[in-house]
Amino acid sequence: MADTTRPFNFSAGPAILPQEVLERAAEAVTALRLGGHQPDAPSIGLSLLEVSHRGGPYQAVHDRAIELAHSVLNIPEDTHQILLLPGGASMQFVMVPTNLSRPGRPASFVDTGAWSSKAIAEARHFGEVRVLGSSSDSKFDHIPPVNWADAAGSSFLHITTNNTIYGTEYEDLPHAPEGVPLVVDASSHIGSRPMALERAALGYAGAQKNLGCSGLCLVFLRRDLIDDPEAPASPKFLKYATHANANSLFNTPNSFGVLVLKLVLEWIEARGGVEAMARLNNEKSELLYETLDNSSLFAAHARAGHRSRMTIPFTLNGAPEAERDALTARFLTEANDLGFQGLKGHRSVGGCRASMYNAFPVEGARALTSFMREFERRA
Ligand SMILES: Cc1ncc(COP(=O)(O)O)c(C=O)c1O
Q1: Nearest-atom index, ligand 1, CA of 91
Q2: Ligand 1 proximal residues by C-beta, below 6 Å
Q3: Which end of the chain has fewer CB within 10 Å, C or N?
Q4: Ligand 1 center–CA 88 separation, angstroms
Q5: Which residues are part of the catalytic machinery?
Q6: Going from the N-terminus, what domains does the chain have, and what CATH number goes with each?
Q7: pLDDT tens, 5-18?
Q8: CA distance linking residue 199 with residue 207, whole number of Å
Q9: For the residues 194-208, what does the mean pLDDT come to?
């Protein structure tokens, strides 16, 4: 059910969260309940924010969040371990090469936009980087074709599976060549649909889009990579083994972020899991793409066949160039006045961006598209 008292929140991240998750998280800030903040369990009389991460009440939250991440996101427990780490997804740009780079072997990347470029820049500190494909020449409006066999011999192969700024998305995870760990940054679409995440040797997602709040990163990695004797020497904190061997409690965790993750995963599960999320996300994104493709004013940035169902940048490129900026500003102001918030596009694409994560209601997509058609008639 849409909550009509709130604006439609199209923010790219931090992003919309389910209302009931917000309410239950607020309640836990006042008084945590036993059993991982189960709805009918007695309150412990203390806030989640003021109890030890080593005590039972928090541990139940922590363990349940990890258990749910395996089951809801289909990350097999026998092959992969889940870590809940600080530093957001950006920290993984550093931790991935810290742990996976190997002397004499290049790291392979596909450059699909700003976030992969940042990951590439960090990896260069650790050795040679090979860029197997890039769509930078066309403003990252598609996923470039890549011959995956070109990654053979690499220390790892890294892709950004949903490109938050440019609105492109890998339909499927590739198979990396034998012996090459596939690494995926799935920050902006994890949990949005069934994905073959088990194909990734290592995956990560900043939580502030589909999984909860900022400052927490969900990482999953193949168990054989955790204590790989070939891993280069590095500071203890940056080693996956340090966190894996301490069940992500090596240092004081972001306990609030972990609670919100748990509540979000319970919310997804109760609604029918990632399959149900996919049906809604398809419906929302199809409504918007259909409007964009049938418009002579609005245009999607990403090419058909490469389009994200989560993050949809679009422009008013049908307007004469001289009027475009003013018309875009007018569209955004009117949209904002009507309660469509967070639609301003990222500066590198310009125009607008509608991020419609799991918690975003179908009603919001219907309302936006009907406003867009009405705006176009008047423009
Ligand atoms: C695909 C992708 N990777 C990485 C990041 C960086 O995440 P964080 O700010 O949590 O470090 C973002 C943030 O939006 C993102 O969209």
Answers
A1: 11
A2: 13, 88-90, 115, 160, 164, 185, 187-188, 206
A3: N
A4: 7
A5: 115, 185, 209
A6: 19-270 (3.40.640.10), 273-378 (3.90.1150.10)
A7: 789 999 999 999 99
A8: 21
A9: 98
Cα-to-centroid distance, 370 and ligand 1 (Å):
31
Cβ burial, residue 270 (10 Å; 0-12/13-18/19+): exposed
Which of 159, 164, 168, 357 for a ligand 1 pocket mutation test, highest count of atoms within 8 Å of Cβ?
Answer: 164
- Are residues 48 and 259 in contact, defined by beta-carbon separation less than 8 angstroms? yes
Q: If you measure from the C-alpha of residue 162 to the centroid of ligand 1, how many angstroms do you get, rounded to a whole number?
A: 10
Best mutation site among 84, 91, 111, 187 for ligand 1, i.e. most ligand atoms within 8 A of its Cβ? 187
Of ligand 1's listed atoms, the one at least distance from the Cα of 311 is 16
Residue nearest (by alpha carbon) to ligand 1 atom 9: 88
SS (H, E, C) 108-177: EEEECCHHHHHHHHHHHHHCCEEEEEECHHHCCCCCCCCCHHHHCCCCEEEEECEECCCCEECCCCCCCC
Contacts of 191 (CB under 8 A, 6+ apart): 72, 73, 210, 211, 265, 268, 274, 277, 358
pTM: 0.97
Q: Sign of the C-alpha dihedral, residues 264, 12, 145, 176? A: negative
- Distances 5 to 2, 19, 342, 343 between C-alpha atoms, Å: 9, 11, 17, 19
Paired residues of 60 in beta bridges? none
Secondary structure (3-state) at 335: helix
